[in-house]
Amino acid sequence: MKSWLKLTGVFLLLYTHTGGLLFDVPRLSILNETIRALYFHVPMWFGMVFLYCISIYYAIRYLKNPTEDHDVRSVEFAHVGTAFGILGILTGMLWANYTWGSPWHGDPKQNGAAITLLVYLAYFVLRGSLENQEQRARLSAVYNIFAFAAMIPLIFIIPRLQSSMHPGSGGNPGFNIYDLHSSMRIVFYPAIVGWLLIGYWISTLRIRIRILQNKTIES
Amino acid sequence: MNNLLVLLRKEFTLELRRQSVISGIALYLFSLVFICYLTFNLRSNAINQATWSALFWLVILFSAVNSVAKSFIGEKPGTFIYLYMTTDAHSIIISRIVYNFLLCAVLSLVGYGLFVLFMNDPVLDHPVFLAGLFLTSLGFASSLCLISGIAAKARNSTVVMAVLSFPVIIGILLMAIRITNNALDGLESAASKDEILNLLGINLISGALAYLLFPYIWRS
Questions:
Q1: Contacts of range A41-44, beta carbons closer than 8 Å, 24 or more positions apart
Q2: Which of B140, B150, B219 would you mutate first to test chain A, the one with the most A CBs within 10 A?
Q3: What is the number of domains present in chain A?
Q4: Closest CB from A119, A157, A158 relative to B167
Q5: What is the domain range of residue A146?
Q6: Interchain CB distance below 8 Å, A142 and B171
Q7: What CATH number is given to the structural domain containing A7?
Q8: pLDDT above 70: residue B149
Q9: Which residue on chain A is closest to B157 by alpha carbon?
Q10: Can you say how many angstroms the Cα of residue B71 is from the centroid of all Cα atoms in its chain?
Q11: pTM for this one?
Q12: Contact B213/A at CB under 8 A
């Protein structure tokens, strides 16, 4: 990863944190200041889906051309993606506690996200219970593709079919409406780019560590 | 194609010959329904429709997972080597999916019969309910088959099977429960059209994935 991309990521996140907490936001009933969760909660899901996309990409590459490198990449992107998902759930619960009155409200989007995390945690359990390294890489690549296919309906389709209190569905205002206040757009878009860059950077660091570890074990 | 028919016939002959397995599954289903009946103690319409459909699908889910799981788990290693040498992976996965689809469909029909016998029959719209039942069986068969193939390779495969399969089939199950609820409420069939189409889509995806990915599992 080019160092100017890393610097951009760090700079954008610094900007997101200062701008996200200090800039003016539109006053809406019930939401009030919690609307600032948009800058920290929503980019987590963008980041999770982005990292899972890269993970499945390397899983497919592994099945076509089995090298250890592809396997390590696939796993580490899934690791960081799951971390993003857990942070997304936690930030969402924090927000829900103040706007919906309880951290877990049985919202379809909340449930879908929780099940998605279960699917990917099962992926790590599967890796833990296979001993042969080559078999582990191949079977977990297969399950990774399957898990991604299971994630799509859970996150993108089923929540849209049910009524939800989540902003952006069921007649509730989504961020498209807040975007009319361009004061939010100038923080939100940089925040997404910043979190994506940082997520990618963390994954590449983990991949390098894992490859070095494998080398020391071999030698 | 010929391979496929031979494999299918082999599945059925084996299954009918080992009657202990079939009677085991039947007994499992029966005990589950009976436990539901005893715990709720409901001869006289004591449960509402939502509870009925939740109980029904839980029973079907558990018996389907248990019966499809054994399609690869617990198979003798010799059988795998023999099949590997004589047939190709695609005909094996298709024959297993067809066979497990029939098994799940029969299981869910029998389960429905037992529910009617012990509790009541709240279903108002039978065609939609049955369509949902068959589509769900197809979805269970195609996704559980692949996962059973993965889990068979792991240590303590039954635990891995449960961990891997439940989150993946929740999507199918949610659709099935929505269709059932519509059928129980007696809404007109058009109300369930979206759900049925969705279920069909999920089935297509999981079937196609099982078809494409199975050769990679089979190779080991």
A1: A41/A88, A41/A91, A41/A92, A41/A95, A42/A175, A42/A188, A42/A192, A43/A191, A43/A192, A43/A194, A43/A195, A43/A196, A44/A84, A44/A85, A44/A87, A44/A88, A44/A91, A44/A195
A2: B150
A3: 1
A4: A119
A5: 3-218
A6: no
A7: 1.20.120
A8: yes
A9: A129
A10: 12
A11: 0.86
A12: yes
CA dihedral A159, A160, A161, A165 (to 10 degrees): 70
Please report which residue ranges of A100-181 form alpha helices under DSSP H: 108-128, 133-152, 158-161, 175-178
Residue from the list A122, A130, A142 with its beta carbon closest to the beta carbon of B213: A142
| Residue position matching structure tokens 């997520």 | A199
Quote the minimal CA–CA distance from B188 to chain A in Å.
18
Max CA separation in chain A (angstroms): 63
Q: pLDDT by residue (tens digit) across B155-196?
A: 778 888 888 888 888 888 888 888 888 888 877 777 778 888
B73 at interface of A, judged by CB pairs closer than 8 A: no
Q: How far is B215 from chain A (nearest CA, A)?
A: 10
Judge: A138–B206 Cβ closer than 8 Å, yes or no: no
Task: Check CB contact under 8 Å for A146 and B156.
Answer: no
Q: Give ipTM to 2 decimals.
A: 0.82
CA torsion B208-B213-B218-B220 (nearest 10°) is -170
